[in-house]
Structures
1.
Amino acid sequence: MQDGLNAWQLIASGDATLLAIVQLSLVVSLSAVAIAALVGLPLGALLALTHFPGRGVAIVVLNAFMGLPPVVVGLAVYLLLSRSGPLGGFGILFTPPAMVIAQAILIVPIIAALSRQTIEDLWLEYRDELTAMDVGPAGRVATLLWDARLSLLTALLAGFGRAAAEVGAVMIVGGNIEGFTRTMTTTIALETSKGNLPLALGLGLVLIALVLAINAAAWSVRVWSERQAG
Amino acid sequence: MRAPISDLPVIFDRVSMVAGGRTILDRVSTTIEPGEPTLVVGPNGAGKSTLLRLCMGLATPSDGRVTWGGRADAKPTRRAFVFQRPVMLRRTVAANIAYSLAQAGLAREDRAARVPRLLAQVGLSELAQRPARRLSGGEQQRLALARALARDPDLLLLDEPTASLDPAATRSVEEIVRAAASSGIKVVMASHDLGQVRRLAGNVIFLVRGALREHVAADAFLNTPSTPEAAAFVRGDLVV
């Protein structure tokens, strides 16, 4: 119980170190969602609307990659970005951009796979009508992405949840450097292993509260938007 | 931007349609000319929808060919289609019409002026900002008509647009269709409702089990049907 009380005090006092950690976590994960959306939504639409040999295999692989182990993604990005790696020249290993890249790779399959399903279902409904209106391929993608926006928001939230919760990838490519690449999850892991349970617990609560707040905001947008356009 | 060339006449030249081993249309040859509305009638499963889809270019014949104004390329720039159950885009009523205008190649500033006119034409002005998917069945069908008319078609195809509507909603749809026809748009409409044939048809295409039995003036079809199936249909007997 004592630990719990300390955690609340820490949150209530608005500790500067704590705020910096929370801020970095949010910036990294939200940037990763933004980048993954730019890649994953068109990829999902492409898979939903095109037919090519091996499409079934591509979909199975994509669905399986929704469960990519974060440590494996972290390791792969580490190898790419390390000094001797192919992208080592950028010198971004152990910086926030490396963490954004790792998380984006982790959640592209989630966003692409969920949006593929959503867009494919909507396409079945819209196909005749859009064909009759002579809508071209680019117009179809744009129409389907826009009309499925409420369901796609859920795919983005799933991606955000995954990014915010993972520890393995950011730990490996960020290095958990204090004041620079330390996020909520890496801090929780570190402080727990050091036995500093109040900070670990406090951050855990903040993390859950943030994820809840973002989901609540998304839900409000959804309800409002449904009222506007059905 | 009106295309200079017309899609009419639509010529079916020995058109067959086979799907899943079943013959849906069997060597249909006919010509759809400009003029009074053509009603495509026949029992369920006669091939009415397939004939309309071929007419739109939504389907490709298994055999034979369809030409539009002498051209075989099927780009539907001057044709519009109203489905039995139209899909409402997840947008407002006005945005559904604006979307169709945009697809027809209308510039943004011209769209703003045409949306209210189309809304008025189908009696949906009051509901402009409503989400389209919240409309009643009859209102949705009228919105589908507005979307179709937004394409400035010279051929308007309708697949049993009133099949699931009550008499009041049916009447408002028929009024819009009649107005479109008298403005010079060629209407081709599937129906299995004899009353609708009496009210709208200039001529009738009568299909039974995928075969074209008659394509004659509505008067002739209703008063002196030349095939036993048509006679039975006009009498109100069940034709299967």
Note: Chain A has one domain: 2-225.
2.
Amino acid sequence: MNGFLDYYNFKPVAEWIHSSLCGVMPEGLALFLEGLVVAVVIILLYAILAIALIYMERKVCAFFQCRLGPMRVGKWGLLQVFADVFKILIKEIIKLKNSDHFLYELAPYLVILASILTFSCLPWHNGMGIIDFNIGIFFVLAVSSIEVVGILLAGWSSNSKYTLIGAMRSGAMMISYELSLGMAMLAMVALSGTMSISGIVESQADGWNIFKGHIPAWIAFIVYLIAGNAEANRGPFDLAEAEQELTAGYHTEYSGMHFGFFYLAEYLNLFIVSGIAATVFLGGWMPLHIAGLDAFNQVMDYIPGVVWFFGKAFLIVFLLMWIKWTFPRLRIDQILTLEWKYLIPICLFNLLLMVVLKVYGLVF
Amino acid sequence: MNSFAKYISGMMGGIKSLLIGMRTSIRVFFRKKITEQYPENRATLYISERYRGRLVMPHDENNQHNCIACGLCQMACPNGTIKVTAGKQELEDGKTKRYLVKYEYDLGSCLFCQLCVNACPHDAIKFVNDFENAVFTRSKLLLQLNHEGSSCKK
């Protein structure tokens, strides 16, 4: 249909690489090599994004508190996070005497695994989705739940009261909020008519879901942001690692890179929540299209999809940071009240509304 | 009001107060930042005049100060920070007059209470806002406030 979208399409390049590799080696080896390259790229991107997000968090937090944030290490403190990451890398990983060693060392890997698996589902660019199949959204929700296991294991195996309380709170919260997260997604799946991530993005070529689905889409968007914030264990839902009461919550006893994994996963979960929100509600890599304005759509197509994706994702990251640095932490009973007495009824009503609107053709 | 109306109005009230909070915080976000980048901003640094950084004895252009060596500041000081050494001088009319020989001040034990300044009947000493007082040895904190060869104003 429109030339520039196809011009930026990555799929032909990927297919060309695959066919030329298959020309010189068996297909299994070619697939293995491609998988290896993609894995390295994903992990690198993961680390770089974590650094960018930590820097952004520190700066945005500082600005919300009328401070400047890191300013000394490098220009505007740009090298501060690199220094911190290097410090974490060279620190010792402590083995606790009375901890359950196997589970204690397994937990950070579970958390980071869930995070990376979800991370690779994001639609970076036209034809650049890494894990992309017909139940993509379902897969995202499923693998992001592995994180709860990691957090509960970390809290239990550390053999400390702080970690256990933190993990129990976190478990109760994350399992509850997955419901409204899933139902907000379900409303959007009902709107798009597909669960595949690339399908959802392509269905937004004539307008993003948040405009197409109007009222129920906005409700789902807000509910998703609240539930996603809770899933990412971030304030105002950060009672799992409530610094003032629990020192650091479930990762109190971790040190070195094992702590680093929790820390990375926390920040990347923020990005993943934002990326999924950008995909489902704001069209993923799809440029801003307004049905009918072809000239405008053409201009928007000149901006590559990856720019659109990161722009939208970081916009939502900023929104979530804004929320985090504005509101005080909720108590566990308040968090569960919010979920079970407010978000779930709203989600159920919203799902019904969306389906009714969709059936009667009242969405765009 | 039935409970369902209460539920809805409570939720709306909550959303409204959350939005007010977000409006407040985004205003702070764009406000001018208050962080002082200290060693770099020395030229533009503003320290209040009232700030008590260090005790000084002002001298005028003739190297004269107001101190009559009465020792009230030394008596007022709760820490024994000030030591006034006075000399005695015979005047023509036969009276003796105290004059200041040495005014020693230990910055290391001063608690900046300003009792000495308040006790002084002649405004001979005052606090200035010079706060960069760090040195490497304690002996450098022992200051002599009267300048070499200074005398009291007539």
Note: Chain A touches chain B through 15 residues (CB under 8 Å).
